[in-house]
Amino acid sequence: MSTDFPPHFLWGASTSAHQTEGNNTASDLWALENSPHSPLGERSGDACDSLHHWQEDLDLVAELGLSAYRFSIEWARIEPVAGHYSRAMLAHYRRVIEGCLSRGISPVVTLHHFTSPLWLRAGGGWTQDEAPARFGAYVEAVRPYLDGVDWVCTINEPNMLAIVAAIAANGAAGSAPAHLPEPDPRVSAALIRAHHTARDVLARTPGLKTGWTVANQPVHTLPGAEEVARAWRAAREDTFLQAAADDDFVGVQAYTRTVVGPEGPIAPGEDARRTLTGWEFYPGALEDAVRHTAALLPGVPLLVTENGIATGDDEERIEYTRGALEGLRRAVADGADVRGYLHWSLLDNYEWGSYGPTFGLASVDPLTFERRLKPSARWYGEIARAHTSAPSSASATSPARSAR
């Protein structure tokens, strides 16, 4: 692979709290999973027990020679009861940050990755008037613990959160891109307000780069469908990208594409190559997403915060990732200001209802929680090392600090 990446380009992997930590009992997703008639096939349970095995996770990142690790701070653990913050959990996440810094890894922190405290959902969720302010108060509680962190994502995939709200409200079916309804407008507006509130809070700490991540919908438009495709993408993606126009960066997250015809999205044909999630195998999604985002938000740096494939064939993971990175290299060579690539995911984990889709660079034994790096992880680590010519910003400029 060519070396057309900037010298300080971040190479890393991503996780999220609920999907890896386990026993997130104060969250809305835990309640949904464990309800008598849950629509989810499996419970998260212990997940990867990363709440206790986080040091092993960081050791994997360091062993691979990666320079960044994206993880989320779980709001439901920090504020299990409205207005009451857990000092113990704040100190726990501070230790994770320090663990990154001591290993020369740049921590990329996400403050909301799909899950909320159950009390927020019980009070009306994101549509209650005070929800953005409550999120801002939580962010203020976390802010003093972010010393040494350069990158903070406020909310992960707000467009998907609003789409899920629309599905829940209207009974729309299907998670494939071709079946996604328009996002719930009230939830969308609330999430944008919450993001801007959090951004204002985080701006009080000099040096923090603040943004949010968007689930990109790379669109391939068939002849005669230009206006239909534009409207489809505008509702599900561009509204949320435009809300990031004044951010320090925006997170790009892409996995597959959507083909749009004159009548709307078209599902892949029966002979299409698919992943374990049923999505079309399409490594070019990342290049498409980066080019679209860069064109829509000129001057806003991009960080690829998620990209990967659900597959049980590790050679297929390498094939997909190689194609995605080649496309990313082309976009960067053509001028896209991309600051890093974070693979989804470091670990095989709970994928919102099932442990079946394996995205991980490492497998996790569900009984012993032993982590085992896959050949794709070693391959990716070599790619990262080959393109790294300087120490990470974490090791160069961010000394570890004591927990408060």
Automatic annotation (TrEMBL):
Q: InterPro entries in the record, alphabetically?
A: GH, Glyco_hydro_1
Residues in a coiled coil are none
Which SUPFAM superfamilies did the record assign? (Trans)glycosidases
Designated name of the protein: Family 1 glycosylhydrolase
- Would you identify the family this protein belongs to, as annotated? Belongs to the glycosyl hydrolase 1 family.
Read off the PANTHER family from this record.
Answer: GLYCOSYL HYDROLASE, LP05116P
Cite a GO CC annotation: cytosol
Q: Looking at the keywords, is Hydrolase present? A: yes
Entry keywords, A to Z: Glycosidase, Hydrolase
Q: Does the keyword Hydrolase apply?
A: yes
Origin superkingdom: Bacteria
Q: Which GO MF term does the entry hold, naming one? A: beta-glucosidase activity
An individual GO BP term: carbohydrate catabolic process
